[in-house]
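Reviewers of the previous submission asked for a worked example of the structure-prediction workflow described in the proposal, so we include one complete record here. The input consisted solely of the amino acid sequence. No template or homolog information was supplied to the procedure at any stage.
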Amino acid sequence: ENPAFLNYGWRLAILVGAGLLAFRSFLRTKLIESPDFLALKEKGYVTDLPVKSLLLSQWREVLLAFLSVVYYRTTLNFLVYPFLFKFFAQEGRDATAVLALGFAFSVLSIFLGALMTFKLSWIKVAIASVASTSLTVPLVLLDDPLTLLPLFVTSSLGWGAMGYMVGEFDPRHRSTGTGLVFNTSDVVPSVLSVVLLPFLKATYVGKPLVTVVIVEEAVILASLFSLFLIRRKKSTTEV
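From that input alone, the workflow returned the following C-alpha cells.
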C-alpha cells in the first residue's frame, strides 16, 4: 500500500545489518585471546589456514555442530518471518504486535537458555528446545499469526545455550569452528526458500502447505539426531 516503503523500506534492514557488521568487526579487533590459545600460538600449533586444519581434524564435530544449530535459522528465517510477512500483506491482518512480542519473547528465551545452561548442560537445553520446536511447528497450519509466538520461544531457548558449543572444538579451533558453524547455518534458510519457492508462493497467497511444515520438521529432526550423537560421544569420552 505504501510504494515508498516497498521501494526503499527493505533497504533499511540492509543498512542496519551493514552497520552491525562494521561494529562487530571493530569489536573483534579489540578482543583478547584466551590464555590456552596464546599458549598454543607460542608453541607454533596455530596454523595459517585454520579452516583447512579444522576440517581435516574435526570435520565430524563441525558437521554435527552445524546440523545442531541449523533448526534455529530455518525455524525463524524460513518459516516464522515469511509467514509474518504474509500476514502483513493480507488486508486487515496486522501482525505488528505479534512481531514485537515475538522479538521480546525471543530475547528473553535466549537469556533464559543461557541461564539454564549453568544448571544443565548446553546439550540438554538444546535438545529440549529442538523437541519443543518440533511440537509447535505444526501450529502454523492454523494460519494465524498468534500461533507463531510459541516458535519464537521454543527455538530461541536453544540458541541461548549454543554459545557453549565452543567447548566441542579443541582450543586452537574454537573461534574458527564456532564461526564456521554459525555463519554457514545462515545460508540454509535461503537455499530452502529457493528450492521450495513454488510451495512458498502457494503458501503465502493461500493456506499454509503441509510440504513446508514437513521440510522444517525434517531439518529439526536432523538437529535433534545430531545433538543426541554429540551427547553420546561426550558420555563415551567421559567414561
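The CA atoms of residues 74 and 188 lie 7 Å apart. We consider this example representative of the routine output the project will generate in years two and three.
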